[in-house]
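Working notes for the structural subgroup meeting. M.R. asked for a predicted model of this chain before we commit to crystallization trials. I am recording the input and output together here so anyone reviewing the notebook later can reproduce the run.

Input as submitted:
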Amino acid sequence: MKTRAERKETLRATYQDVLDAPPHRVAEVIAGTLHTHPRPAMRHAWASSILGGSLVNPFSRGSGGPGGWWIVFEPELHLGDDIVVPDLAGWRRETMPEYPDAAYCTVVPDWVCEVLSPSTRRLDQGEKRSLYAREGVRHLWLVDPDARTLEAFELREGYWLLLTTLVDDVPVSLPPFDAISFPLDALWPEVTAGAGKGEKS
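Returned structure, recorded in token form:
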């Protein structure tokens, strides 16, 4: 008869569980547990898209900025036994000289951004943040579309140091992307009262 620890080990989620997850769910495996959550809602998707768009040209393409990075939307990362899908991730070209031709990436990013939502907030701020520190991700941004904030962290001796919390319409110019600047409020879609209900804006 198997011990409780052996039964728990047998039940640990694997990559096959990720592959078997419904296509409309984002699946991750952290510490042997499968986590699934719905695709990002529209406000979440807007923040992620605008942030990525602000970084791709200057840092991935070298247009209006220094280049030297791979900036990727929702890459699947296999870090040890864990499988995570951050909203955005970035690798310096010296960290990952060649872009992988594979279903997932095993190289630890230099920067990760999570856009918080009700279904992912606890996981992003808890287990995933700890996992990124364990793996040596140097920079972590947490974007909160509800609070309209951006928290920037830097890894120091294995622990996250909060560099700053940005609010309102302040310019975003933060490590490792402080070569450029863009307004924080670009990440929040303007909501007009009555829009979509036949009322004049």
